[in-house]
Amino acid sequence: EVQLQASGGGLVQxxxxxxxxxxxxxxxxxxxxxxxxxxxxxxxxxGVSCISTSDGSYYADxxxxxxxxxxDNAKNTVYLQMNSLKPEDTAVYYCVAGRPxxxxxQSEEYDYWGQGTLVTVSS
Length: 123
Prior knowledge:
Blueprint: E1 3-7, E2 10-13, E3 18-25, E4 33-39, E5 46-52, E6 56-59, E7 67-72, E8 77-82, E9 91-98, E10 110-113, E11 117-122
Parallel strand pairs: 2-11
Antiparallel strand pairs: 1-3, 3-8, 4-5, 4-9, 5-6, 7-8, 9-10, 9-11
C-alpha cells in the first residue's frame, strides 16, 4: 500500500520557519519524483516544489530563495524547509509522488497524494 505521510505543519508568525516532512512507503522511492503542492481557502491548488533523483529540484517562483526541498533516500523521506514565511504561504500542504512528464507543477502528473498538513502564517 502506497503511503505519503506529511507532517510538520503548524502556526508560525510571519518571518518564521517551518520544516515539513513527507515519509513515503509502498513504492520504489528512487523511481518517483516527490513534490509539494498547496491549496489555500478559495484558491487553486499550486505546485510549490519537487525533487527527484534524476532531475534535481524545482520551485515555484513565489517560494524561490525561501524554501528548500531535500531528500533522505535512506529514510524514504523528503523535507521542505520553509523560511521567511509570509501570510500568503498559509495553506494545506500536500506531499505527492509521481513521474511528471509535461511539467512538475501539474497536479495531474502525480499518482499518489498524502493527507496534507496545515501551515498557518500570522501577520
